[in-house]
C-alpha cells in the first residue's frame, strides 16, 4: 500500500537534543488540558492503526505515524505514546537495519530501552524529550524495601509540550497487574492513560529520578521519604483517594491491634486483601485473615480495624472501583495501594469479626442507589445495654427492606427473634435487642418490584454490645475491644514530612494547548525538502 509510504520529497530531520535541559515544574497540569482520554479518540485510533502495519524503513514509519497528518506538539507526543503502547515492540521489523540507524535501535528492543525508543521517536517528531533514570516501585516492589545503594531499576521520559516539561512512562502505560500476587508471570497488558502526562505530585509516589529536579516539584522529596511512602498504584488517584495521615508504607500494631484511615473524593467502592509473610498466606487455622479486619466506609473515608491473630508481618492491599453507570472493565476492583503491617504480638482478643455477606461495613453506595437515607452514617454502632435502633427513610416507597442478624456462634436463623421490623410511610425501622454482649452483624437487603421476590444485599452494620463490668459469660466475643478504642495509627504516628498534595484545586482549561479533540487533517500542498541521507541516531545521555 503506497499511501502510507513516505513521499520521495519527504525530509526526515532530527530535533537538536538539548544536552543541558533545565528541569522546572510545569506551568500547567494534565487535568487542566483534558479529563477524558476520548478527546484523543481519532489520534489514538490513528496510532493503533499504524501499529498494525510494518514499515520498510524508519522514515516510512515516521511519515505514516506523525507527518502524514497535521498534529500539534501535544498530539505528536500522544500519537507516539499510543503507538508504543499498541505495538509489539519485541517483534518490530524493517527491510534492513544498518548499524547505528534508528531501524537498528528499534529492532534491538530490550526492556531497558523503552524510554530511549520514545525519546528517539520524539526527537524525529521535532519534540524535546529527555530520558531520566531512577527508582520505581514496580511489580516486584514490597512496602518496606529500600533503594539506597541499589542500582537504578527503571527509566522514563520527560517531554516538553508548549514550553512545559511533562512526565511520560510509555512502558508502564501498557501493563496492569490483574492478579492478587505481585508477580511478573501474572501480568495482563492493558493501556493505562495515567502514565501520559503524569502529574508530578502524583508521579512522585511511584517514580523517583536520580536527579531530584526531575520530580518537577517545587519542594522535591528525599529518597528516604520516597521509600517510606506506601506502594501506590495509578488507580489510587483515578478514584480520588488520599492518605489522610496514613503516609507511611510500613506501620506497626500495638498489642496486635491497629486502626488506620484513607480518604476518597469520588464515587467509589473498596475491598481489600490481607496476607501474612512473604509466602502471602491468607488463612489462620482455616479462617481467612480478612475476617480479622473490619473495613468501614463512610461518606469520604475508609477506616480499617485490625485484630491480628499472630505475630509477624502482613501485607494489606486495598482495591478500589470507580462507580459509574457502565458495566465492563471500568467496574472492576483494581489494586490502589499496599502497606506492610508489622505485628510484634498477637491481639489477646484476636477473634474474627462476624461473618457477613460483604467485607465492607457501613451504608455504602448501594443505599443511595435505592433512594434511602440511613439513620446511621457509620458502619460501627455501639450499645451499652444491647438495644439498637436503625431506620432508613425512603424517597422511593416501593423499595422493600429486610434485615438479618448474624453472629459467628449462632445458627443462621437463631437470631431472627431479636430483630423486629416496623414499617411507616416512607420509612423502615429495625429494633434490635442483642441477646448478650459481643459483636453482631446486621445485614440489610433491598427489593424493588421489578426484582420479584429477590432481595439483594445492600449494606451491613457491626453492632458492638459492650460487656458491662463484672460480666461473666460463655461468649468469647464479649471482651473484644470496641473498634473506636483501638490504637489509631493516624493520630499517634510521627508525620513523614511535607508531602505534595496529590490533587490541586485548579479547574481544567481546555483551551490552553489548542487541543483539537483528535481532529486531524491531511497536509495539503506542503512543500517537502528533498530527503537527506538517514543520519545515525545518537541517544542523549540519560538525565541524572
Automatic annotation (TrEMBL):
Q: Which domain of life is it from?
A: Eukaryota
Q: Which InterPro entries match?
A: Ig-like_KY, Transglut-like_Superfamily_Mod
Pfam families annotated for this entry? Ig-like_KY
Where does this protein have coiled-coil stretches?
Answer: none
Region named Disordered: 514-544
Q: Where is the composition biased (Low complexity)?
A: 516-536
- Which residue numbers delimit the KY-like immunoglobulin-like domain? 223-354, 375-467
The name of this protein is TGc domain-containing protein
